[in-house]
């Protein structure tokens, strides 16, 4: 297999762009200049890792690059418009926790006035003097169709809608129980906080927390597992886990899972006498001892004689 795919970046990093506008494409680290195979709408050419390209016509463009012995980069797609006014969104994928910037822009960088921003037809902000809209940190509910209105030159304008998608950084965690949900007392149980990362940003560091009845019992920790050793009855409760991408300030909690620790039934009860056999002369001492091979502690023993229901005594031994 080849090396990791390079990151393909565009400058300016927006979509849509304008017809005849120049873009600079960079394959990998900006400071490098290495032989690179470029693909633009499926047509390949060879150049260095930095390429300038003029957008010749309206429509949709797909860019990819591949360096020596690397996998091809993920495609970067943008659209090209011949409208006078557009609402621009980031050309790179936007994930939860990112800063989402939208730009109401005119041909040749003409600045509009009295700008309003809309999401799915509903007014978000405006009218006002700012031609950018910042949504941070980006959340899934920020996905939608955006457009802007304003005044430019001598008349008002309204842009075509631009579809914006905020991708999931990682899935809502699921609390996995590696063992029975009604384990016996004294046994061990492993809980795992299972999430799926996004292929758009695969190396996100997560921290994990585990809760019982709403209180933190483990974490924050890098490991997605929590081992409960030598379970006791107080370990019963409603468990949940939480995954956090602290750098992106994104956190998600699992649905609760009920764990009920079962009492171990009393077993292997034996009665012993000292001296053995329980034969003593009047006035001598007799010691009776009752032991149990298993059972949830603490145990309470009851002493009975000749089958009587009423105990002679009760106690821990």
From TrEMBL:
A GO term from the CC aspect: external side of plasma membrane
GO molecular function, one term: transmembrane signaling receptor activity
Keywords: Disulfide bond, Signal
Protein's UniProt keywords contain Metal-binding: no
Gene encoding the protein: Fcrl4
Domain Ig-like: residue ranges: 6-81, 173-258, 265-317
SMART domains in alphabetical order: IG, IGc2
One Pfam family hit: Ig_2
Taxonomy of the source species: Eukaryota, Metazoa, Chordata, Craniata, Vertebrata
Entry protein name: FCRL4 protein
GO biological-process terms attached to the record: cell surface receptor signaling pathway; immune response
InterPro entries: Ig-like_dom, Ig-like_dom_sf, Ig-like_fold, Ig_Fc_receptor, Ig_sub, Ig_sub2
């Amino acid at each position: 297999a080849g090396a990791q795919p390079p990151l393909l970046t565009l400058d300016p990093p927006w979509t849509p762009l304008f017809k005849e506008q120049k873009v600079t494409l960079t394959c990998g680290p900006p400071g490098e200049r290495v032989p690179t195979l470029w693909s633009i709408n499926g047509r390949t050419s060879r150049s260095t890792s930095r390429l300038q390209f003029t957008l010749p016509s309206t429509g949709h463009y797909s860019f990819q690059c591949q360096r020596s012995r690397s996998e091809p980069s993920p495609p970067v797609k943008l659209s090209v418009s011949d409208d006078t006014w557009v609402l621009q969104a980031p050309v790179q994928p936007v994930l939860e926790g990112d800063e989402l910037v939208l730009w109401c822009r005119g041909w040749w960088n003409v600045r509009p006035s009295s700008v309003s921003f809309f999401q799915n037809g509903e007014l978000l902000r405006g009218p006002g003097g700012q031609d950018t809209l910042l949504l941070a940190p980006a959340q899934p509910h920020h996905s939608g169709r955006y457009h802007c209105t304003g005044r430019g030159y001598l008349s008002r304008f309204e842009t075509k809608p631009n579809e914006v998608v905020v991708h999931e950084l990682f899935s809502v965690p699921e609390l996995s129980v590696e063992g029975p949900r009604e384990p016996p007392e004294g046994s061990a149980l492993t809980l795992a906080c299972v999430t799926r990362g996004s292929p758009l940003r695969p190396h996100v560091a997560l921290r994990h927390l585990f809760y019982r009845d709403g209180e933190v019992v483990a974490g924050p920790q890098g490991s997605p597992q929590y081992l409960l050793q030598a379970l006791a009855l107080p370990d019963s409760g409603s468990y949940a886990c939480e995954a956090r991408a602290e750098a992106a300030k994104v956190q998600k909690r699992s649905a609760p899972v009920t764990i009920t620790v079962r009492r171990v039934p009393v077993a292997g009860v034996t009665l012993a006498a000292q001296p053995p056999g329980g034969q003593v002369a009047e006035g001598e001492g007799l010691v009776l001892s009752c032991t149990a091979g298993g059972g949830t502690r603490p145990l309470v023993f009851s002493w009975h004689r000749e089958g009587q229901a009423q105990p002679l005594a009760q106690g821990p031994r």
